[in-house]
């Protein structure tokens, strides 16, 4: 009985101890190795493993680091894998072969045996624990009783797995990466856009830009004044967001994908795209993000401000872009296609910028090309005609040689000078005494312009100084410069007036299209001839020429050329009639019903005209003409236009069309004159029968052109026109 009671007590105590051991808390002090309390343990042994995943890493203490919540493949090495056990992971570190039954196990999965010593498993580890250890299930037999048991595989470093947790949820992490990319692109673009806008350019934009540009420039200018502070802020902020983005991207992925993704995103989205945009629209982008810039300036204040102060101290004040004349000129030339500036405007600006570097000798008119008059000249019709022909408003006057300029004549000084008075030129110059301005040939145009602006004169005499070693310095006049020359250099154009014959004083190029100048030399000799042949002054002849040229259509240049008409006006076509009271018939220039073949223009005096059956009478004075219909008949003669031009040219030298030797004799007496009035001849038999009478009632001077003279003028004009057509165009050649 004692033996049985003792045996029963031992069995009870044994069972109680085993149960208490299985129910004890999972602490190393309370657990014992199963091998000490079990009769036999059928459990696979894991001696090592390898994580086959590209995101897995090995830490410095030789344990694996794997990403959380991602499936990984584990290759196990050990014994007894043919039992196809399960594995689980616990966060409790125990010694090898410790009991894991009461421990919390996660990611339990059954392994797949490749061989008895190699197996593989696929698991997904959550991020609830930092470090995990492997437990393997199997069968344990104790006192003949078999039951399932989990066996700890140890806590050595090579048997430990570290789970790398995500910093935050994936949607939040992706959102932050996108935000960092946007900020990176913004700072990169602002670094180029804002720093490229210097203070001078912002000042220009705020003054003369569009309304939007003015508003943008005023918003950016306070920030841009602190250039180094702004630069440090943008760079620090850019580096900060790039670093944050790299960390987030590396946590989201790993390995080559993280490197490539980070590089491409920063380069393309963070650098290339924003810089290409801000290089063109930096002003607008900078103004619309100015408050964000203020925020990061405050955020990076502890680092940005000290460095910026050091840079300000070392580098000095920021001046900005400054353009000299040459650079500004080239800048305008290069950008003329984009800044909406016309080429003429570019030339004007270019000329104004080069204004102070151009010397007088480069733009002056050489002395040999200057129209000048001698001091002893007489202001007769010939001289006045030459002045009018040249068309200059200011004429230098010389004495002796041309280099000795002693006075200046203004064209307006001749307004009240009568050529018939033949006043000496020196009398006019001594009366007005216009001041002479002298400049040296190496003086720049700005100095000359200041002289002209004083109002003394718009023409300056250019002198050159000659330094001889054996004598005193001497001055010599080499040309003149006018206000027009200075303005042409400023405008960079050649101002062509009606009198210019050269397009450029420098190249001496002849002007192709020169306005035809009236040559009055044919009238100059009229008053110098014998009064028995000519009874009018040159001025009166010239006035008659202007009248018939503009008021009598038959003398239009379409029919009679100006050259031929001037030659006609120089012929013996001027007459003077003194009325004879005893012989009234001789006083008539035209009589009603009597044919006439001539044209008459009253120059001086008075005539009485009687018209029609009603015998209307009125008096006519100078510059009234009669008999224009006879000239129209000559023009209308068809045979004249049908004549062969070659035959006309063949008789060109015949006296009948030689206007310089027209055989028009002045009547010896008034009786002969009247008979000439009443007679008419001509190859075309051109005449008209007037329905009016013209009677001289006062001493009258008139011009008389017969149909034969007009016919010869028409022929000569035709010959001249044909000759002009056959001339080669030397200018085009």
From TrEMBL:
Residues 585-627 form the Cyclic nucleotide-binding domain. Residues 427-498 form the CBS domain. Residues 166-345 form the CNNM transmembrane domain. It is found in: Cell membrane. The keyword rRNA processing does not apply. It is a multi-pass membrane protein. Belongs to the ACDP family. This is Metal transporter CNNM4-like protein. It comes from Dinothrombium tinctorium. The lineage of its organism: Eukaryota, Metazoa, Ecdysozoa, Arthropoda, Chelicerata.
């Amino acid at each position: 009985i004692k033996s049985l009671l003792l045996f029963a007590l031992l069995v009870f105590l044994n069972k109680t101890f085993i149960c208490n051991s299985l129910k004890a808390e999972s602490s190393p002090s309370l657990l014992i190795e199963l091998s000490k309390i079990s009769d036999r343990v059928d459990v696979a042994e894991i001696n090592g493993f390898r994580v086959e995943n590209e995101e897995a890493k090995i830490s410095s203490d030789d344990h694996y680091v794997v990403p959380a919540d991602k499936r990984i493949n584990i290759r196990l090495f050990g014994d007894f894998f043919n039992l196809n056990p399960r594995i689980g992971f616990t966060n409790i570190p125990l010694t090898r072969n410790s009991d894991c039954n009461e421990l919390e196990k996660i990611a339990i999965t059954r392994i797949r045996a490749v061989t008895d010593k190699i197996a593989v498993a696929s698991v997904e580890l959550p991020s609830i624990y930092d470090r995990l250890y492997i437990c393997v299930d199997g069968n344990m037999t104790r006192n003949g009783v078999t039951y399932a048991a989990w066996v700890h595989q140890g806590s050595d470093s090579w048997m430990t797995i570290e789970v790398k947790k995500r910093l935050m949820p994936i949607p939040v992490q992706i959102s932050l990466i996108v935000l960092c990319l946007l900020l990176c692109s913004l700072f990169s673009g602002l670094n180029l856009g804002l720093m490229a806008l210097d203070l001078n350019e912002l000042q220009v934009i705020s003054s003369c830009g569009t309304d939007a540009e003015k508003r943008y420039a005023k918003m950016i200018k306070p920030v841009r004044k602190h250039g180094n502070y702004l630069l440090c802020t943008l760079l620090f902020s850019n580096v900060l967001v790039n670093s944050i983005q790299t960390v987030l991207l590396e946590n989201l992925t790993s390995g080559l994908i993280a490197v490539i993704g980070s590089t491409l995103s920063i380069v393309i989205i963070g650098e290339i795209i924003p810089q290409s945009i801000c290089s063109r629209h930096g002003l607008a982008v900078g103004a619309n993000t100015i408050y964000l810039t203020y925020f990061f300036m405050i955020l990076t204040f502890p680092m940005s401000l000290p460095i910026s102060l050091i840079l300000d101290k070392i580098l000095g004040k920021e001046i900005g872009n400054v353009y000299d004349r040459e650079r500004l000129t080239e800048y305008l030339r290069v950008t003329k296609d984009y800044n909406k500036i016309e080429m003429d405007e570019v030339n004007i600006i270019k000329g104004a910028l080069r204004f102070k570097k151009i010397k007088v000798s480069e733009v002056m008119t050489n002395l040999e090309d200057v129209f000048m008059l001698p001091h002893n000249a007489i202001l007769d019709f010939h001289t006045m005609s030459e002045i009018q022909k040249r068309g200059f408003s200011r004429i230098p006057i010389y004495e002796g040689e041309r280099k000795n300029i002693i006075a200046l004549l203004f064209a307006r000084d001749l307004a009240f000078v009568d050529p018939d008075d033949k006043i000496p030129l020196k009398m006019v110059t001594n009366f007005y005494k216009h001041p002479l301005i002298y400049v040296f040939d190496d003086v720049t145009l700005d100095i000359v312009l200041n002289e002209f602006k004083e109002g003394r004169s718009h023409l300056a005499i250019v002198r050159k100084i000659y330094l001889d070693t054996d004598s005193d310095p001497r001055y010599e006049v080499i040309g003149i410069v006018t206000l027009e020359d200075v303005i042409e250099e400023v405008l960079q154009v050649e101002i062509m007036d009606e009198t210019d014959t050269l397009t450029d004083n420098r190249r001496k190029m002849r002007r192709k299209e020169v306005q035809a100048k009236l040559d009055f030399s044919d009238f100059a000799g009229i008053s110098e001839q014998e009064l028995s042949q000519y009874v009018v002054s040159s001025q009166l002849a010239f006035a008659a020429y202007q009248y018939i040229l503009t008021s009598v259509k038959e003398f239009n240049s379409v029919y009679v050329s100006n050259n031929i008409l001037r030659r006609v006006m120089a012929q013996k076509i001027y007459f003077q009639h003194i009325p004879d009271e005893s012989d009234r018939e001789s006083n008539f220039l035209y009589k009603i019903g009597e044919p006439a073949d001539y044209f008459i223009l009253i120059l001086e005096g008075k005539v009485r005209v009687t018209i029609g059956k009603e015998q209307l009478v009125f008096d006519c004075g100078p510059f009234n003409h009669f008999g224009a219909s006879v000239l129209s008949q000559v023009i209308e003669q068809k045979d004249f236009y049908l004549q062969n031009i070659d035959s006309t040219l063949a008789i060109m030298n015949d006296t009948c069309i030689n206007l310089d030797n027209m055989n028009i004799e002045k009547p010896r007496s008034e009786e002969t004159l009247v008979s000439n009035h009443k007679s008419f001849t001509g190859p075309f038999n051109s005449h008209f029968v007037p329905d009016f009478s013209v009677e001289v009632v006062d001493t009258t001077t008139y011009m008389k052109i017969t149909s034969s003279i007009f016919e010869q003028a028409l022929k000569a004009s035709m010959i001249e026109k044909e000759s002009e057509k056959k001339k080669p165009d030397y200018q085009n050649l």
